[in-house]
Amino acid sequence: MRCDTLWHNAQLITLDTADGGLGEVRDGAIAACDGRIVHAGPLSSLPAGLEVANRIDCGGRWISPGLIDCHTHLVYAGNRANEFEQRLQGVSYADIAKAGGGIVSTVRATRAADDDALIAATLPRLDAMLAEGVTTIEIKSGYGLTLDDELKQLRVARHLGELRAVEVAPTFLGAHAVPPGAEAQAYIDQVCTQMIPAVAAQGLAEAVDVFCEHIAFSLAQAEQVFTAAKAYGLQVKIHAEQLSNQHGAALAARFGALSADHIEHLDDDGIAAMAAAGTVAVLLPGAFYFTRDTLVPPIAALRAAGVPLALATDSNPGTSPLTSPLLAMNMAATLFRMTVTECIAGFTREAARALGRFDRVGRLRAGLDCNLAIWDIDAPADLVYRIGFNPLHARVWRGQ
């Protein structure tokens, strides 16, 4: 057997265990051929007669799977720091929205930007994530709210994966908000009869998302979106139970959704439905922190029911201007009381589940893509414990 590269003198966080643990290997090695892992485990168990083209001594450093950010709104134009300052001075979000701020301001700026302008605005945010070991990232549309502008966002998301060594999972979120001057049901009809068919025809998205909330779209409208998405062979996911319990997570589970995201107001029925369907809970501590929320997601109940727990930055201009998965891990531990293992798994193995990529990324296992993050740390807990510190030594994407 041959391999292109062998990383040795390393300690591994494989995430490939039957008990859901970190899968630590103290004297480990990883071998890759043609961008895929052919060995991940103890150095002593390397295949006999392995022909190695390139050997890299890791100096005892730790290697984890490349990080996966499974919920972002990374592609947008404009800046809402002024609104943040206004809120600190006591101006309500409602008053800001009435004055033309909020999501409407981001929609306006995104519509005005062409592809090149959106790429230029987004690349610094993406580069910040890659610098912390991200190798796979989901990017949603949702700031266009017209067919042409939603397609533009998805087109840019796809192109980012050509400009950088990263895998982009694009998601169509046309049902993000009601456009200014529109009526919710008429707009949802347009999403289902015009936008989803166009997105599917152009192959611009893998999944369809919807914001099911009293300030966005109803349960019945979310079901309409899911039905249309499934008719065109697209996966579904949902923004659910962030501000109130609309029972969106249970609906999403009934449609076999990849994930239900936010879920602070999730009830027991929703948890049971997610557990039965294998729908992943994507927890977003950045938004929880930034909006100063006080209702913690039902972590203990989700854990007890066996619902997979993923984490993400929710990077967006309004409620989570966060581009650090490492900080998101610390927030999840401090605000949600998640364990070190859950935090690291949340940005690797479980995030891969949330993107329908469990059989390709998120673990160190033979046959999976060779996406690695090599860390200058003493122990895995350092990835969650440190604040404002980036210990990434090297990032490997598909063996390079």
Report on this model:
The protein is globular. It is α/β, with parallel strands linked by helices. The protein has 15 helices and 15 strands. The mean pLDDT is 97. A hairpin with a 2-residue loop joins strand 2 (24-33) and strand 3 (36-42). The longest helix has 19 residues, at 184-202. The two termini are 19 Å apart. It has helices spanning 81-88, 93-98, 103-112, 115-130, 147-163, 184-202, 219-231, 248-254, 268-277, 285-290, 299-305, 325-336, 340-346, 349-354, 382-385, and strands at 2-13, 24-33, 36-42, 51-57, 62-65, 67-69, 134-140, 167-175, 207-212, 235-240, 259-262, 280-283, 309-311, 372-375, 392-396. The protein has an 8-stranded parallel sheet.
The helix content is 25-40%
In the predicted model, the low-confidence regions spanning at least 5 consecutive residues are none
Radius of gyration, taken over Cα atoms and rounded to an integer in Å = 21 Å
Globally, the shape reads globular
Number of helical runs?
A: 15
Element-level helix/strand string:
EEEEEEHHHHEHEHEHEHEHEHHEHHHEHE
Portion of residues in beta strands equals 15-25%
> Largest sheet, if any?
8 strands, parallel
Helix- and strand-based class?
alpha/beta
- β-strand number: 15
Q: Give the CA-CA distance, first to last residue.
A: 19 Å
Strands of the largest sheet, in order across it?
Answer: 6-7-8-9-10-11-12-13
Mean pLDDT: 97
